[in-house]
Amino acid sequence: MTGKPPKLVRLARLGSARLVLLAEAVVALAMARLIVATRPPGRLTLRLGVPRECGAERRSVADVRVRDIAWSIRCAAANVPFRALCFEQALAVRTLLDRRSIPATIHYGVAPQAGDSDGLRAHVWTEAAGEPLTGYPLRPAFREIARFASARLKDKDAVIG
Fold it and tell me: The pTM is what?
């Protein structure tokens, strides 16, 4: 038999630190899914953080933890038995980063709905420490309409604009 080993074998090879991070990501995604499923759409943006000016620059030092957290969210989202799309992933990654006091930015954007002149598609993507985390690669049609910094972090750590 050739190809990839079964998922359980791959999980066993991850090591304890990555397994713990992956478990934390699954829990954060489940909580994010519950929030998205039970809140009216207009109130969901309150969970994203403090609104910031679009185009504002953020300064941070690259951190290997940021890449590990992004990996854990993408891996968990691809394997959980519930919907874990861009919004859920953004909320989950924000949770994991906030716990580690790592500033991040959540971007909210829209694009025209294909075949519908009046419709819009929404998309949420996140970045931290200069690293794209969730919601990438970003399609060129999406235009940022809002940007959010973490409400739990000090203002000076989140966005400089």
Answer: 0.74
